[in-house]
Amino acid sequence: MVGLFIAAFLALFLLVPVVKVIYVAFIDPATGDFTLLNFKDFFDSSLFRESFYNSFYVSAMSVIVATLIAMPLAYFTTRFNFKGAAIIQTLGIIPLIMPPFVGAVAMKLLFGTNGSINLLLEEYLGINIPFMEGLNGVILVQSIHYFPFILINLSAALINIDSSMEEAAQNLGTRGLRLFRKIVFPLAMPGYIAGAALVFIKVFDDLGTPLLLDVNKMLAPQAYLRISSIGISDPMGYVISVILIAISLFSLWASFQAMKGRDYSSVQKGGGGLSKRDLKTGERIMVYAVIGFILFMVLSPHIGLLLLSFSTIWSFAVLPDGYTFAHYYTAFSSASGYITNTLIYAGLAALFDVVLGVAIAYIVYRTGLIGRKWLDYGASAALAIPGVVLGIGYLRTFHNVEVPIVGEPLASWWVIIVIALTIRRFPYALRACVAAIQQVSVMLEEAAENLGANKRRSVFKIVVPLMSGGIIAGFVTSFATASVELSATIMLVAKESDAPLAYGIYEFLQSASGRGPGAALGILAVIIVGLGTYFSHRIIERGEKKRNAAVAVNEE
Amino acid sequence: MNDTNLTIKNLHLSFGATEVLKGINLDIKQGEFFSFLGSSGSGKSTLLRAIAGFGPTPKGQILIGGQDIADLPPWEREVGMVFQSYALWPHMTVAKNVAFGLEERKVAKAEVNKRVIEALDMVGLADYADRRPSQLSGGQQQRVALARTIVVEPRILLLDEPLSNLDANLRVQMRQDILALQRKLNLTTIFVTHDQEEANSISDRMALLSNGVVQQVGTPLALYDKPCNNFVASFLGTANIFSGEVQDDNGTKIFVTNKNVKIELPKIDTPIKSVVIRPQNINLSAVNDAAASKGGLIGVVTKTEFLGSHIRYEVIVDGELFIVDQHHHLNGEFFEKSSEVQLIINKDQTVILN
Ligand SMILES: Nc1ncnc2c1ncn2[C@@H]1O[C@H](COP(=O)(O)OP(=O)(O)O)[C@@H](O)[C@H]1O
Ligand SMILES: [Mg+2]
What we know:
Chain A is mainly alpha-helical. Chain A contains 22 helices and two strands. The longest helix of chain A is centred in the middle third of the chain and has 41 residues, at 326-366. In chain B, helix 2 packs across helix 3, helix 2 (94-104) runs parallel beside helix 4 and helix 3 (109-122) packs across helix 4 (138-150). The relative contact order of chain B is 0.11. The complex binds adenosine-5'-diphosphate and magnesium ion. Magnesium ion binds next to helix 1 of chain B.
């Protein structure tokens, strides 16, 4: 029943619009007949071939750089006892709550050819490093923006490794990096792959960042440019959409294959996670130095944005020329509607996501429902659908579907934005829920049923509480990323009063004079979502502590 | 052969403010099969893990062959540990798991292969080398964990409740296998268990732990027959323990319990707080008047329990409860509930606690 409802929802708001887009790609615009000619045109063009290669290169490099950022943070915070581990984890998520296109503007001011860092480097070392030139810029901005996907998944996986796994290896003579490489990392592999695949796909599909950095020779910008400049009927935009979808689907499939047979669900959850070790003074200094450096890199978009939001003029200088509050005044006076809209849209979407996520995770991993795998694949397939594609699909499919009572077309009603966000962010929540349910041994549920709890009660009293860490992680990820989503919403905002924050920021940033207020609004967004994230983290931690205490008592 | 005597001197260990090991002293000899016995929470695992180098840093000394290892990290101790949960790495095959320690020691590839097969052979799992741990039964996983540990020829083998996750039949079989393996390798071994039958049946010697303190060390027989305090006496098997005081009875010293029951004593010259008499060291017989007049212990049977090879009686003598085991023979004597019986206690089988 639940399964059927979810299936219908997915079909209507994911399958139908996407099929429409794919359909158009195979149609000759002149005759309306089926044709492969559109694809031939695509591969005949050297511009499109280069864009194809660039998209691939940028995505792969972003995964590598994101891994280099996420891995030390995840490992240090789960492995060692030191102050600030919780703060570091929280800071590690902050990049997600700023739209990457906003970050890109700030990063240019800090790392560009004439940015602060290069001005300093030139003055003291006589060098200029092209951090932000061409594809480098996209890679840097994207990996800084998306590495939290790896951080979150990897940390969760690390925490769930039973400490005796690690101790057994130490007992046999291994330590340090070798221990990490041979035991810890392979065991955390499912989490890592999940995160890395997400990064790859998101970067591959992202539109705003390359556009803002003037990098047009990538697939998503090409699709957007074709549709926005030539029009909604130009087949090339749809062809690129199909290719984006195909590559994303392929990456998803590859990551599923890689995760197969790596279900390391351990019976003894609460047996302990990586054993946390105290740091020696020397080690502590090194760890703090590494973390400090990484956090500086990761937070540089925020630092840059903060400076920008307070600056009178800032160009060709290490720091702004002067400071002012004027931008905040401008921002506040025009943005309260954006903020409320964002909280409502993202909150609702994240809530739907985790509810659906738990339901699907449970159906797929704990029941024998026919076609259950397809629910999982179907939901995950939303990942393979770039926001632009979904946006176009909705416009085309729902512009003449009238909503009763409201009396508006579905395509321009605000609820369609919530639906788009739900669909877009669903895979994140689902992956988190699936990872969580895989860590909960079936035996725990069976034990509850054995003691007389019926299916529903054992799900709600045993499975869901044990999954709560993953569920909240899923909610936070969905909420945070939904609140800064731009690519689908930009196409679905019908009137200013329905617009979310990201849209407002984007509008401001379009003009040179709007950069200051846009930055101020960006800072506001970061603070609001940051606070939300922080409190949900506190809730997880408190729950976790209680639960661990309970487990410890039971084990005695 | 290297000296692998293990000496623990005045070991203290705390988790935060809670002291869990309170001054442990032990001497474990080379090649010995030694058990830590104690109820759950007594500190057995904590002590074992301290020897392997896990957990909070303890105060005191841990010496192997005279060398203090207390400051060495786990990976330099050459102390093999088999974890209660086995801790087999799910991402590696059985052979890979077993080969791991050898590879860490940079043993040549051919040698690794040879020794892995030998070790798996030793635990009877040579055919399972290419399986994943998740494809093995609990008992098989246990054997792999054992093979993985012994293949690197550790100086000392530590086993933390290795049989607790196995079913009963397998447990009995497995403990004999472990003992045989230990004898064959002449490996100094510490075996942690909360099951006294397990400890009794395979230990050369054992230490009984309670509350982070070693209560007594000795052979299973010595601990059973000569417990040094109430706790040991009552933890190991069933015991009648009476407190009272020594009185002079016409020139011979006699023990009088708090309820005024008189028990004869062996020759003693230490102060006595209580006496211990095992149920099987008391004989029951029908009351005969002559004995009764001589002041023998006469009681009433309040409960009988037939246990196959013996019968357990509860007998009340002047308000003092005696548990008595009598061998059961075909056509042997049986005392009904409520019948009067005479208790005969050989004073040499009475153990004195002070
Ligand atoms: N990680 C820990 N933190 C705090 N207390 C612990 C920890 N591990 C064990 N203890 C405490 O130390 C005592 C001994 O535990 P343990 O050595 O595991 O007992 P045993 O193995 O004999 O059952 C127990 O009271 C237990 O609660
Ligand atoms: Mg224990």
